[in-house]
User: Which sequence fits this backbone?
């Protein structure tokens, strides 16, 4: 069985993430979406909230998809899941340097797990969780970048914390 891990912060999950998930789910027998706790990024949503959001948004997608929280070295998590590949999305040249470095270091940690890069649909490539949050904080519409339910989650969060 081919298992791949798609790791990320998903703060919040965007249409770009969901496109990568949709594209990768039918390339493998099982896709494990790993939601990192990542306190260094000071996420807007708790890991439990992000996990619930990703679960809800992927519930109706075809394919075998698990959504799991992790707080360890990515390669250890991937190995524990029986994965042979790590999936990452590439947006633009700006992502390349960081992703290149991370893939290189992960290869040194475990050469049996390949990092595979996928491109989201061209129209969804500019979307970044960070900008979604910034736009929402300034009262802009994020409806083109996230699902209606996620947009509501972001609005509710901002209202509760204003
Ligand atoms: P991380 O903190 O690991 O970068 P993110 O949630 O920001 O977590 O992103 C998870 C993965 O999804 C990364 O590989 C990132 O490059 C990719 N990604 C995010 N947004 C998009 C997008 N719009 N198109 C393609 N890939 C994306």
Assistant:
């Amino acid at each position: 069985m081919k298992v791949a891990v798609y790791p990320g912060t998903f703060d919040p999950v965007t249409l770009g993430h969901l496109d990568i998930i949709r594209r990768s789910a039918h390339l493998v027998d099982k896709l494990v979406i790993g939601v990192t706790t990542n306190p260094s990024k000071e996420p807007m949503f708790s890991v439990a909230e992000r996990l619930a959001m990703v679960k809800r948004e992927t519930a109706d997608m075809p394919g075998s998809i698990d959504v799991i929280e992790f707080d360890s070295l990515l390669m250890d998590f991937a190995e524990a899941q029986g994965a042979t590949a790590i999936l990452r999305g590439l947006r633009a040249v700006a992502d390349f340097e960081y992703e290149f470095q991370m893939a290189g270091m992960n290869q040194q940690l475990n050469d049996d797990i390949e990092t595979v890069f996928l491109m989201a649909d061209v129209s969804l490539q500019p979307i970044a969780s960070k900008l979604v949050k910034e736009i929402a904080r300034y009262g802009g519409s994020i409806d083109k970048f996230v699902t209606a339910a996620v947009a509501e989650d972001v609005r509710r969060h901002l209202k509760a914390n204003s």
In short: The longest strand covers residues 30-36. Residues 7-10, 14, 16-17, 20, 88-89, 91, 95, 120, 124-125, 127-129 surround adenosine-5'-diphosphate (CB under 6 Å).
